[in-house]
Amino acid sequence: MKNRILPIVALLLLLTVALSAFLPADTFAQAFNKTNNTYTGKTPKYVFLFIGDGTSFPQIAAAEMYLGAQKKTASPEIKALDFTNFPATGVAATYDSDSFIPDSASTGTSIASGIKTGNGIINMDPQKKTNVEPITRKLKAKGYKIGVISSVSIDHATPAVFYANQVSRNNYYDIGLQLANSKFDFFGGGGFVDPRGERAKIANAQDVLEVAKKNGFKVVSTKEEILKLNKNSGRVIAINPQLDSSKAMPYEIDRKEGDLKLSDYVRKGIEVLDNKNGFFMVVESGKIDWANHANDAAASIHDTIEFNNAVMEAYKVYEKYPNDTLIIVTGDHECGGLTIGFAGTEYSTFFNKLEKQTMSYIGFDKIISDYKKNTKPENYKLEDLFPQIKAAFGLVPSGDAKSELVLTASELKRLQDAFTRSMQASADRKYDDHEKIIYGTYEPLTVTLTHILNNKAGLSFTSYSHTGLPVPVYAVGLGQELFIGSYDNTDINKKLVAITKADK
Predict the structure, then answer these.
(1) Both ends of the chain: CA-CA distance in Å?
(2) 3-class DSSP state for residue 88?
(3) Model pLDDT, residue 398
(4) How confident is the model at residue 19 (pLDDT cuts 50, 70, 90)?
(5) In whole angstroms, what is the distance from residue 23 CA to residue 423 CA?
(6) Using one digit for the tens of pLDDT, what is the confidence trace for 115-141?
(7) Cα 47 from Cα 482, distance rounded (Å)
(8) Measuring CA to CA, which residue among 54, 46, 114, 41 is closest to residue 331?
(9) Is 403 left (phi over 0), alpha (psi -120 to 50) or beta?
(10) According to the model, what pLDDT value does residue 30 have?
(11) Residue 372: Cβ within 10 Å count
(12) Were 150 and a residue from 284, 294, 424, 461 both cysteine, which residue would form a disulfide, CB within 3.0 to 4.6 Å?
C-alpha cells in the first residue's frame, strides 16, 4: 500500500510545482473585485506611471523597426523596446466626452482622475462645474511622496492633470500657481510657459517660481545643481538648463552630448523621492506627440527610444524591490496617424534611411529662418539650401546619383513649391485646400522634407492632429495582472486607485 501511495504523492508534488506559476494570477484575481474596484492584496510602495504623449502602437513599432534596421540583417528584424516585454499587456480606449479623437487634457484627466471629460479640460466634469481629484492628491494624503516629470513644459496638459483643476489647459499661469501651491515633492524637466502672468495679461501677478520658493520648494536650473540633488534636498522644482521657445526640453535628436535627458530626471527623481513611506512618480515624454503632430518620424523615434531608457531607470527600482514596485507604461492617445507603409514603397520599408536625419523639424526651421534673414528676397533660391538639406535629411538632387536618397523630379517640384511658400511671410500664405492638407500649420519646406524622407523609408502620416486609436498598456510588478485585457482609459485610474488603496 505504501508503495502505491508514494508515486501518487510524488505526482501531486509535481502538479503543485507545475501549477505554482499560475498561483500569483489566481491569488490576484481573488484579491480584486471588479464590481466595486476593490483590492485586498499587498499595496506597492513604489509606483511609476509612464505616459508617452501621442504614443500608440505605430510609434512603438516604428522605434522597434528602426532599431532592428540598424542590425543590417538580410531579412526584416525588430529590436523590442524593453517595456514591451513587460509580463502584463493591455489595450485602452482613448475617446473623451466630446469625440473619438481626444486631446491630452481630457485623456490625461481620464488617467489621473478616472472620468471622461471634454477637450481642453483639466480635472473637471464636461460641464466645467465640478472639480475631480487626481490620484496623486489622494496618495499624498496617504503619505506617499509625489513626483511629476515631463519633457515638455511642466504646466502642459499631461503633467497638469496630476496637480491642477482648470476649465482650460491654456490657463498656464493659473496652472503654474496650482503647482507652486501644491504639497508635492518633485517636479522635473520642462519650465513654465507663463510664470509671470504676462500671457494671461494679469496685472501685478505673482511670479510662480517665487510663490513656489515661499512655499518651501527649492528651484534649480543648472546641470550641476540638478545632479547634486538627493533624498535630503527637500521639495524640488528642477528645470532643464536647455529649453526651447515652448519651455520644453530639446528633442532627443537635437540634444547635445552631455546635456540632461528624460532618463536623467527619472533617475534623479527617484533619489529625491526616496523615503520609508514610498512614492508615486508620473513621467511624460511629451515631445513624441509634438514630433508626430509635425509628421517628423525620425524625431518621434528618437524620443520614443529615450522614453524607453527613462522607463528602465524605474525598472532598476523594480529589480531591487520586486515585491514593492509597480510600473505602468502607456500612451494618452495616438498622434499623426502614423502608418508603417506608403503607397510608393508598397510592401517594402527602408528604416535605415531615417538614420540620415540629423535634426528635428525645429532645427531645420531655424535654418530657413536664418536664410531668410541673411538673404535678399530677390536672391532666394532653393539650390542655396541643398547642402543644408543633405546634412539634415540626407536628401540630394538628382545629379548626385551615388546617394540612395536622390530626389526625383516630382519631389524636387514639391520642394520648389514648398520653398516658394516658406520664403513668404506667414501672414501672406493664402493656402488653397490642397496646401492646407500638405503643409498644415508647419513650415512648408521643412514638412515637405520630412514627408519625402518618411515616404522613402516606407512611412506616412494621415493627420497633423490626434487620432482615435486605442493605446497599449504595459505593466510589471505588484498587481501587474490587473492591466491585462481591453478596457477604457478611465480604468487605468480605477485599477491604480484599487491597488494603492488611494480612496481609503
Answers:
(1) 55
(2) strand
(3) 76
(4) very low
(5) 66
(6) 999 999 999 999 999 999 999 999 999
(7) 14
(8) 54
(9) beta
(10) 56
(11) 15
(12) 284
Q: Are 351 and 470 in contact (CB under 8 A)?
A: no
Give the CA count within 13 Å in the CB-facing half-sphere of 137: 17
Measured between alpha carbons, how far is 239 from 504 in angstroms, rounded to an integer? 34
Residue 182 C-alpha cell reads as 501644491
The grid cell for 362 is: 525645429
Average pLDDT, the chain: 93
Q: From 361, 394, 385, select the one nearest 461 (Cα to Cα).
A: 361
Q: Secondary structure of the chain: what % helix, strand, coil (to 5)? A: 45, 15, 40
Q: Provide the grid cell at 245.
A: 521657445
Distances (CA, A) of 376 to 373, 380, 383, 443: 8, 7, 15, 19
At 407, the amino acid letter reads L
Residues 48-63 have pLDDT tens digits of 999 999 999 999 999 9
DSSP state of 32: E
- Which residue's entry shows cell 522607463? 311
CB of 85 closer than 8 Å to CB of 363: no
Report the pLDDT value the prediction gives residue 504, as an integer from 0 to 100: 84
334-335 and 325-331 beta bridge pairing: unpaired
* CA gyration radius, the chain: 25
Residue type, 362: I
- Look at residue 13 in the predicted model and tell me its pLDDT: 40
pLDDT of residue 106: 98
